[in-house]
Write a structure and sequence with these properties.
The complex is a heterodimer of chains A (about 180) and B (about 425). Chain A is about 70% helix and about 0% strand. Chain A has about 180 residues and is mainly alpha-helical. The longest helix of chain A is centred in the N-terminal third of the chain and has 37 residues. Chain B has about 425 residues and is mostly helical. Helices cover about 80% and strands about 0% of the residues of chain B. Chain B has 21 helices and no strands. The chains are: A mainly alpha (about 180), B mainly alpha (about 425). Chains A and B meet through α1, α2, α3 and α4 of A and α1, α2, α3, α4 and α7 of B.
């Protein structure tokens, strides 16, 4: 929610791997925020060109869309680090600590597995676009490997952040689901 | 396997996965991948990144982060408090002016921010202590703000409506307009209940507020008018055919950020980063659910589940109002546990064919669905707004907040019934403006 200066963040302790992943995710977050700002600026520029200068715009709409897609995918690890991906924690809350730990292992492993699948096929899809020189069927005709690159990068970094989360729970640096024992 | 039975299995699997505590978006991807592997083989997974990317490859989605930035920049300032004060000063002669101005401020702030928890926090921080100081019952003070906050997803511009529009390919412009009168009707119902319960509690004397001079009344206007101006400007640009919702949202976001910087002196880079960080976090979360729900609905239709459910309901030959009642019960229950965006994205592709084949207007249904989601925001166990109120007024027990909110849930159910009897409350304005 807006207006808060403190947020729950994945704990890293003094573990160098966790700190490295946290730094990577934060960097990805800055990149994502930067792309959103660029999308705002570009959209305003587009409106200015169209309505004030009475000109026509060629590449802006498509570019803004790809910026948004990239901001979403590359922002994934950062939002994971900020615990921003909503979940339903009713069952985890009602479980005893040991069971909660077990469930956390299951959910994190499943998350890691699905993100690994997305990374694998995402990379394959990007590689197709790169290999075959795909271009978008618009006037701009952008080389599609550029926007598609966000899929392997985003899911690759998300995979790292999820593995870091798993490691943090295993090393007892972080509690399962980030819930306090009570 | 019979697609209907398969549909039931998918529903149960989805509930189990989502309740396990995994994030909603990844949960949807896990369920989709699981069923695609079982029924279409491993190779069907190679389509998932393409579908996910394709779902995000949509200019209309731009309006989501833009409206979120607009809301976050307003919420990071004292605009909520100023709006509240302005209304209180101007509505001082209205009986129960304080609770009326609180609800009015909620409605206006909701229009500016598009977010329910942000509205609750911004107005509640000032409104709840003030109402309690003046002797309003705790339940009314907390309940009115919790309920007023929910208007954020109904009164335009609303993120929930944008998501519905994208999920169902319905005009976002029409959806926004459809939310206006039902939103005002809800405000009216909330005000009526607040005044009645305050009067009944024997605190009728608090219903008259203090008095303000004209100088005090005008002094506060320069701080609130620019934001209201932007909202009017955004709506004009959209309906005057000047620009698309995404484009107007981008300009609105830029202007709100500039006003926050100029009028509220939000120059500090750290404060600006907080606005941007919170906007990024919320946008990415919502957009990822949208993308994952796209994969989920691809799985449903590639296994013929969506089509079979629609055909099955069509053959059931039940009364359309019984059907609508069942849909409402389903939505309320789903809303108890899941955020509105997730409910809409999962349920809309399945429900929309059923609703339209039963002769209901999809625009009207969006309003009914949104009010159902509002109920979820002030009902346990998830009830986000209840916890926001608990955060800003920790000395009011969650039980009192909940008890205070229940009558407002009743108001929302009354609103849904009124909308069923008089669908024109939602459909008249979009039809009148957009033909």
């Amino acid at each position: 929610m807006a207006g808060q200066s403190t947020l729950p963040v994945a704990k890293t302790g003094n573990n160098p791997f966790l700190r490295f992943v946290a730094a990577l995710s934060t960097l990805a977050g800055w990149a994502s925020a930067g792309m959103i700002v660029a999308a705002v600026a570009l959209t305003c520029q587009m409106i200015f060109v169209r309505f004030v200068l009475n000109g026509s715009t060629v590449w802006q709409t498509e570019c803004v869309i790809y910026l948004m897609v990239a901001a979403t995918l590359i922002g994934l690890p950062y939002v994971q680090r900020l615990r921003g991906h909503v979940n339903v924690d009713l069952i985890p809350l009602s479980l005893a600590p040991r069971l909660r730990f077990g469930l956390c292992m299951v959910t994190l492993s499943l998350s890691i597995a699905i993100v690994a699948v997305m990374l694998y096929y995402g990379y394959e899809y990007w590689h197709f676009a790169w290999d075959r020189g795909w271009r978008s069927d618009t006037v701009w005709g952008v080389r599609l490997w550029i926007p598609y690159l966000a899929i392997p990068i985003g899911f690759g970094l998300l995979l790292l952040q999820l593995i870091a989360d798993l490691v943090a729970v295993l090393l007892r640096i972080e509690t399962p689901f980030g819930l306090e024992d009570s | 396997m019979d697609p209907l039975l398969l549909g039931a299995i998918v529903a149960i699997a989805t509930i189990i996965v989502l309740f396990s505590g995994v994030s909603v978006a990844l949960g949807l991807l896990i369920v989709s991948a699981g069923f695609l592997i079982i029924f279409d083989g491993m190779r069907s997974l190679e389509l998932m990144p393409e579908i996910l990317f394709g779902k995000l490859d949509n200019f209309a989605l731009l309006s989501i982060p833009m409206f979120i930035i607009m809301g976050a920049s307003i919420a990071s300032t004292r605009a909520g408090a100023d709006l509240y004060e302005a209304l209180e000063r101007w509505l001082t002669r209205v009986p129960g002016g304080l609770v009326v101005s609180n609800l009015g401020a909620c409605a206006l702030f909701a229009a500016m921010s598009g977010s329910s928890p942000a509205t609750c926090a911004a107005i509640g921080k000032m409104g709840i202590p003030e109402m309690r100081k003046r002797g309003y019952p705790d339940g009314v003070a907390a309940g009115s703000i919790a309920a007023g906050g929910t208007l954020g997803i109904l009164i335009p511009p609303s993120i929930t409506m944008i998501v519905y529009g994208i999920a169902t390919e319905t005009s976002i412009g029409r959806l926004f307009l459809a939310g206006v009168f039902p939103g005002l009707m809800l405000v009216g119902l909330f005000m009526a209940w607040s005044l009645y319960s305050t009067w009944r509690s024997g605190n009728a004397d608090v219903l008259s507020s203090g008095s303000y001079t004209w100088a005090q009344k005008f002094e506060i206007l320069p701080r609130v008018l620019p934001f209201i101006g932007i909202i009017i400007g955004v709506l004009y640009a959209m309906y005057g055919g000047v620009a698309t919702p995404s484009e107007t949202a981008a300009v609105g976001a830029l202007l709100c950020l500039l006003i926050a910087m100029v009028i509220y002196r939000l120059w500090n880079p750290v404060d600006l980063w907080v606005v941007l960080r919170d906007s990024t976090k919320e946008s990415v979360m919502i957009l990822f659910i949208i993308a994952a729900a796209g994969v989920f609905s691809y799985m449903l239709s590639s296994l013929f589940i969506t089509q079979s459910i629609a055909a099955w309901i069509g053959e059931l030959d039940v009364n359309r109002w019984v059907l609508m009642g069942a849909v409402n019960v389903f939505l309320i229950i789903a809303g108890f546990f899941l955020p509105p965006v997730a409910v809409i994205l999962m349920a809309a592709p399945i429900l929309l064919p059923i609703i339209t084949s039963a002769g209901f207007d999809p625009i009207w249904f969006a309003v009914v669905l949104t009010i159902n989601m509002e109920i979820g925001l002030i009902s346990p166990p998830v009830g986000l707004n209840l916890y926001v109120i608990n955060g800003i007024a920790p000395d009011i027990s969650l039980k009192t907040i909940l008890k205070g909110s229940l009558p407002f849930v009743a108001c929302m159910i009354v609103a849904i019934i009124l909308l069923c009897i008089f669908p024109g409350i939602a459909t008249w304005l979009p039809n009148a403006v957009m033909g």
